[in-house]
Design a protein that fits this description.
The protein is mainly α. It is 72% helix and 0% strand. Helix 3 packs antiparallel against helix 4. It is elongated and about 60 Å long. The relative contact order is 0.07. Residues 19-26 have low confidence and may be disordered.
């Protein structure tokens, strides 16, 4: 008797779970590529095209949104900071390693690669700001 009640409870809970979930319908062929879910049996090239199409459409929608909040600008500020900081630190690390491996009396590898890292970082930040401004 107890087993039948347990089984009935399990069946009821499974039935209610099925009713709560919305029915998932497969994407129609007329749906835009950004709405289609990747199908595991589709060729990899088609899945790749769909993924690229979804990402391009999302990026285009984001660029069309002219009302940019303070969070966008804070994110841009942080991105520019990291775009300069990472190449600078990489240049310093490379320069320190070169100074320890091949010490040069007349030049400092650390200073040389520090300046190269800063220059590369500034170019990188300029590229990202120009790209995000839409010009």
């Amino acid at each position: 008797m107890a087993e039948q009640n347990d089984q009935r409870r399990r069946d009821d809970s499974q039935e209610s779970a099925r009713q709560e979930r919305p029915a998932q319908t497969p994407a129609e062929p007329s749906d835009p590529p950004e709405r289609r879910q990747p199908h595991p049996h589709r060729p990899p090239e088609q899945r790749f095209r769909d993924t690229v199409g979804r990402k391009a459409a999302r990026k285009q929608r984001a660029r069309e949104d002219e009302d940019r909040s303070i969070f966008f600008w804070l994110g841009m500020f942080g991105m520019v900071g990291w775009a300069v900081a990472i190449p600078t630190l990489a240049g310093v690390a490379l320069g320190l390693w070169l100074d320890s491996a091949w010490p040069a009396a007349e030049a400092s590898w650390t200073l040389t690669f520090l300046l190269l890292g800063v220059a590369l970082g500034v170019l990188n930040a300029w590229y990202w700001v120009k790209r995000e401004s839409g010009e």
